[in-house]
Amino acid sequence: TCGAFRLKNSGDAGQLVTVLKESIQGRNWICGTPETLLIATLGDHVVAVFGADQLVQTFKTNLQAAYASAEISLEEAIV
To answer: What does the pLDDT average to over 34-54?
Structure first.
């Protein structure tokens, strides 16, 4: 699962990263738990992706190849 967000103010990226982390990590999963959560920032954009680790790693590799300025703000196991 992936979502991309465009911010009015790029200074709000840290706050959005925190809110996304809390929201995704706070879920109760019914049909299997995703393995990995990744959140990247690109200026005034924030991209969040979670799911099977192999798919998240492929997404990360391709994101960084396409956008050299992409910064990984968060990468962790979903608990």
So the answer is: 96
